[in-house]
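Bug #77: duplicate submission created two jobs. Keeping one. Sequence:
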Amino acid sequence: MNKVGEAFLSGFITVLLERFISAETYNLVVGKKLGPELVRRLKTALLAAEALVADAEQKQFGNQLVKKWLDDLRDAVYKADDLLDRFCIKAATQKKVGTFLPSFLNFEERQMVNEIEEVVRTIEDLERCKESLGLEKIPTGSSSWRVPSTSLARGNVYGREDDQKALVQMLNDNNEHHLSVISIVGIGGVGKTTLAQWLYNNAELMEGFHKKAWVCVSEKFDVVETTRNVIKQIHGGTCSLDDFNSLQNALKEELSNKKFFIVLDDVWSNDQHQWRNFITPFQYGAKGSTILLTTRKENVGLVAQTNYQPLILNTLSEDQCWSVFASSASFPESNGSPALEEIGKKIAKKCDGLPLAAETLGSLCRNHEAEEWGEILKSDIWEFSTNDSKIIPALLISYYHLPPYLKRCFVYCSLFPKDYKFKKEELILLWMAEDLLRVSNRRETLEEVGSKYFDDLASRLFFKEHQYNDDYFVMHDLLHDLAIFLAGDFYCRLDELGEEEVLRSLTRHLKSGKFSVSKTFNSIATLESLRTFLYVNDLFSMESIASKFKYLRVLSFTKLDVVPNSIGELIHLRYLDLSMTDIKTLPESLCSLCNLQTLKLYYCRKLATLPSGLHNLVSLRHLDIRRTSLEEMPGKMSKLNQLHILSSFVVGKHENNGIQELGGLVNLHGSVEIKKLENIVDVNEAKRAKIMDKKHIDELCLEWS
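Kept job's structure:
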């Protein structure tokens, strides 16, 4: 597990303090349940601790005691947030049903008050440690370091003219061989992928190739999966084949007597046996066929069968690094400020010749003055060092200068594997469920705020558009390493745990992965404060999850047959993904989840009905029921007036589930499919659906049987 903590705690504390500003929260919870004195102590303790966080964030790097202080404070803030959330939900539920339990039945509430008192004491004790740790209250500064969202456009390739010529020469020489393997070798962030992209997208150089494919391989070289991905890239679609023999024969069929150019990006394996199995179908191509590898390990290309010595990418010179920085910072080629240029060249020098570092820092410095560039240059983080050389100070500085709300969103991405293809809309739904989005005015939706956050991170190069599919975004390996580094013990991916490693009690966000988690089953069961549990397999039943993880906000399954009544006990749940499972029904208890924002039932082919009380999910914003077997919608759908996305609506034959129920859904966006239109018997029913008033729908599909 990672040993370094979190530099976004101040943002989390700010969110928690905002709870006290809400009049509704105060009236429901604070005034009636906690009492003014406990509320005052909690607010005072949080404010006092928050004032120290900025100093602690910088001093934690290299000081384990400060890092431990931050861990303990963050753990306490998580607990306070969970307890306040539970109080709000309980109080709102009591207000809704109009019942107030006698005091002797309110044991759970009294227990929660005791837990909050314990949290307050913990934060107060931590604040008193400031002198022994040398922590001071320092101003956080007024600059937002905001940059425009135009830097997604690809820039020039700087300082690689000789390397480009060498690649072109190798490509031209390949025409005498049936298969050649070229490898580009260099350290992380030096520009291997950028150079490969330049070649792959050069129309003149690619002329004459019949087949092309680009596949990210990454650290775990799975021969079967990589073969399947090559086929999918060539087809531009899906591949339903499973066994290796069928995949190899299919690939041989695709490549036989064809001249192809295949890029395998970020290869780590030098296992000769794996490569011998993988490479077989590629040997049936026409003369001039080429595989281009990018790798950090020189011996990978040699093992993979090659006619050439690897192309070693060296780091850039100081002048070249300055060119990358200046371009990313939009520094004018002429009439630029001499003061800025002087500081900028010193910053570029500190990037150690890595174009990724120069580009990322340049995007940070865009539209800022010399004084703010000077802050970057003088940062103590440049002195940061770790045994894990993957963490580059320049990237850490770029992260440090993110606004607090973006820091939390970036670190959340550590839950996903390297080379993961992020879908913007999907990530926004998860951020929303984790309460990471802050609406500043009533005219903005949570989805719009999430889109701004994502675009802001992309403008700072924390995300880049996928090269061949603009529906997806990717994160550079080194930035992914940084996210994991900063996430510490609070985030965990089970498939990255070593054999001897165990889960820490601090873990709040957990991703299971595709394989069995039996070895960690017992340690997972102890994580009572877990907030995120992604891709749960059949080792955990829904009943066990509901009984053990009462604070869950995000839950998704890979395998599930039955959803039990106990799902209604997960009152904190905001996001539930049951897509592609074998469920046939959903219990009525699901409809008590008043905080549920996202319900994904995509490709639940056996699902024929939805619970009749679905209209009680008053917070529901996204409902995905594509590829299900629903015969009709439940009644009173018009009451779900927060719905932002409704993938489809199956018109029923009754008054309360007919087409007119769409009339109340005024906030629908995106694509909507309306099925079983033959059930409309009166034109006035259709008019009452008010389809023409739904200005944000951009695609409408109408279906009759």
